[in-house]
Write a structure and sequence with these properties.
Length: 143
């Protein structure tokens, strides 16, 4: 038996934040919902959060890697009205081992773990991280 993942994915907003480790300030983020995408990088956070709030209107799930411990708390700290998105979040950090049991984790290096990265930072752009992971609609769930 198979099912069409399109209605489920239409109810999801995939988000990735970039947060300054020392100040906990959001300095960039990206969000994707269906074909719509939002990218923010800059100082004017409030108007960008307004656009994110509009993109999330009617969404059932906020999706992200480590969204429960990082992105959602930072979003709520900057815009309390976004707390409602935490009702049914999907954290791919916890979901990935279920989908890919043979190789559940990839090697993740953050700038605060590796001194060389602090010298020449090359963070992955939020848009690259905010696209819904392919395994959310994959055939593994249809078995």
């Amino acid at each position: 038996m198979t099912c069409d993942p399109a209605p489920f994915l239409a109810a999801c907003v995939s988000v990735d934040l970039e947060v300054a480790p020392k100040s906990a300030r959001i300095f960039a983020f990206a969000a994707v919902r269906g074909e719509a995408a939002l990218v923010h990088k800059g100082a004017a956070l409030d108007p960008a959060l307004d656009r994110l709030e509009a993109l999330c209107d009617g969404a059932a799930h906020l999706v992200g890697h480590n969204i429960l411990r990082l992105d959602l708390p930072n979003l709520v700290a900057n815009r309390a009205r976004l707390a409602g998105l935490g009702a049914a979040p999907i954290d791919t950090l916890w979901l990935k081992p279920v989908a890919f049991q043979r190789n559940p984790y990839h090697h993740l290096v953050k700038h605060y773990h590796d001194g060389r990265l602090a010298i020449t930072p090359r963070p992955r752009p939020p848009m690259a991280n905010s696209c819904p992971p392919p395994f959310l609609g994959c055939s593994r769930w249809n078995t």
